């Protein structure tokens, strides 16, 4: 895999599909991981179902497993607005970008932000790209500390025999 960021490449399509799954799961009150996994399985059996990139499943799973924390971070950067009032597609885009900023160590922060803004341009309202950029511009500032804390936590978990019981979240 090359390290260059191809405009609208495979990762972009994977993120866009993750937005679709998160959006659909929220609208239909389904588990997004089940939805993405079932769709991936189905795409292997039915040619009319578009293939699901592994990165899509990674992102959907990451967002689902960290949803409360992601929403807490997004909420803390919303001025005079609530997460529930945001368009559902913007919620999905922000959740993916914040997850990438905090957990996807192979994705440079600038790429996570640019991708989110690009998805907002493609999928949401005229105001959304600027809004998404503004929120993520603040989250980027705290992301390095969160990433290093997460890395320390996963190192502790590995040394503790792999038992991760995160009741404190």
Describe the structure.
This protein starts with 9 loop residues before the first helix and ends in a 10-residue tail after the last helix. The radius of gyration is 16 Å and the shape is globular. The chain has helices at 10-28, 32-45, 54-65, 67-76, 88-103, 109-123, 128-159. The protein has 169 residues and is mainly α. The protein contains 7 helices and no strands.
Cα shape: globular
Order of helices and strands: HHHHHHH
Structural class: mainly alpha
Unreliable runs = 1-6, 162-169
Q: What share of the residues does DSSP label as strand, in percent?
A: under 5%
Fraction of helical residues: 55-70%
Number of strands: 0
Main beta sheet, described?
none
N-to-C span: 34 Å
| Distinct helical segment count | 7
| Radius of gyration, in angstroms, nearest whole number | 16 Å
Mean of all residue-level pLDDT scores: 88
SSE topology sketch:
Elements: H1 10-28, H2 32-45, H3 54-65, H4 67-76, H5 88-103, H6 109-123, H7 128-159
Helix pairs in contact: 1-3, 1-5, 2-3, 3-5, 4-5, 5-6, 5-7, 6-7
Features:
169 residues, 7 helices, disordered N terminus, disordered C terminus
Quick structural gist:
Helix content is 70%, strand content 0%. The protein is mostly helical and 169 residues long.
